[in-house]
From TrEMBL:
It comes from the Bacteria. Its EC number is 2.6.1.-. Its cofactor is pyridoxal 5'-phosphate. GO terms for molecular function: pyridoxal phosphate binding; transaminase activity. The keyword Transferase applies. PROSITE patterns: AA_TRANSFER_CLASS_1. Gene3D superfamilies: Aspartate Aminotransferase, domain 1, Type I PLP-dependent aspartate aminotransferase-like (Major domain). Belongs to the class-I pyridoxal-phosphate-dependent aminotransferase family. This is Aminotransferase.
């Protein structure tokens, strides 16, 4: 009896990610040094951990409401109001989710149907497409490589018109994984001018919003398109809380009333003690990302200097904690093979650019969410590798 034949046929469209495939292919390298993880190397702030301990000691171990603790939703509303000028009512316009990933799953399963298409600027984080495929919809990528990974209004409108009635949503991610690209107020306003003309959802993954490095603060597209935008955020990156699994959906009341239907049956509610920790993070710890951000800038600039000297083309990232670098001419352009050779010969792992889609081929992604000592060693080994493989 082979019951796999009776499973959801959309699973056939989903494969183990190339990131995982690559990781498995080099996991046997002794002492492998990985600059692969999209996870802060900082510990969760002490005051946040203490808040969780107090909640546990107070027996806060029961279900919260499906939307999450009202105190947390109020803290989230206050946070995005102060930081980004956004107004959301905690009672009916915010959902607490199990990380940004569940927020995306709940959102995409709620709005998509078989045959729908979703526009996605590429190269892009590979976690979006499997969710879209599972419900029978399809990702359509917009190639941004010729424009330094920046989506323009002209690119966007052309793609929207090409999709026509099939188009259900545009999925944005900025600051972006893997490129680190983010957008100015003028750029966001220009994209919003295009999007407001069409009856489509804007799903905006802004989980790296607190990790922006230019002088201008992060600008959410929800500021300009509050009725169309479903805003995704969370505490994993901003507060080094990846394991706590706290994310948020911000949307108009009419949309939230529908989104809670998919959210509640996916998870019921986020962990209660983690929600109490999140209240502390968003209130007393609202600026906790600042110290991390200063360290990330130093690491970013160090890597850019070193890799640029070796011939890598790098668009300076203004957010997140990734370098997406073009492999120099004269070297192996298959990013999977390049990274595999580097890992096996020098025991340092980058992520092949092709893991982020076909438009990432010829690039490598490395995370600078690692100590400067680790990064320095990795750069020295990269220099050796490039010298040994030069034509």
């Amino acid at each position: 009896m082979d019951l796999t034949k009776r499973m959801n046929k959309n699973l056939d469209k989903i494969e183990v990610s190339l990131i995982r495939q690559f990781d498995q292919s080099i996991s046997d390298v002794p002492g492998i040094m990985k600059l692969t993880l999209g996870e802060p190397d900082f510990a969760t702030p002490e005051h946040v951990k203490e808040a969780a301990k107090r909640a546990i000691d107070a027996n806060q171990s029961h279900y919260t409401g499906m939307s999450g603790l009202l105190e947390l939703r109020q803290a989230a509303a206050d946070f995005v109001k102060e930081k980004y000028g956004l107004t959301y009512h905690p009672e009916d316009e915010i959902l607490v989710t199990v990380g940004a990933t569940e927020a995306l799953s709940a959102t995409l399963t709620a709005i998509l149907e078989p045959g729908d298409t979703v526009l996605l600027p590429a190269p892009a984080y590979p976690g979006y497409e499997p969710i879209v495929n599972l419900v029978g919809a399809e990702i359509v990528e917009i190639d941004t490589t010729a424009n330094d990974f920046v989506l323009t209004p002209e690119m966007l409108e052309k793609a929207i018109l090409e999709q026509g009635e099939k188009l259900k949503a545009v999925l944005l991610n900025y600051p972006a994984n893997p490129t680190g690209v983010t957008y100015s107020r003028e750029q966001i306003k220009a994209l919003a001018e295009v999007l407001k003309k069409y009856e489509i959802f804007v799903v905006s993954d802004e989980v790296y919003s607190e990790l922006t490095y230019n002088e201008e603060t992060h600008v959410s597209i929800a500021e300009y398109l509050p009725e169309q935008t479903i805003l995704i955020n969370g505490l994993s990156k901003s507060h080094a809380m990846t394991g706590w699994r706290i994310g948020f959906i911000f949307a108009s009341a009419v949309l939230t009333a529908q989104l809670i239907k998919s959210h509640q049956y996916l998870v019921t509610a986020a962990a209660t003690s983690a929600q109490f920790a999140a209240i502390e993070a968003l209130s007393a710890g609202k600026d906790d990302a600042f110290i991390m951000k200063q360290e990330y800038i130093k690491r970013r600039d160090f890597i850019i200097e070193k890799m640029s000297a070796l011939g890598f083309k790098i668009i300076k990232p203004d957010g997140a904690f990734y370098i997406f670098a073009k492999i120099p001419a004269g070297y192996e352009q298959d990013s999977f093979k390049f990274c595999q050779a580097f890992a096996r010969e020098k025991a340092v792992a980058f992520i092949p650019g092709v893991a982020f889609g076909k438009y990432g081929q010829g690039y490598v992604r490395l995370s600078y969410a690692a100590s400067i000592e680790t990064i320095s060693t990795a750069m020295n080994r990269l220099e050796e590798f490039m010298e040994e493989h030069a034509d």
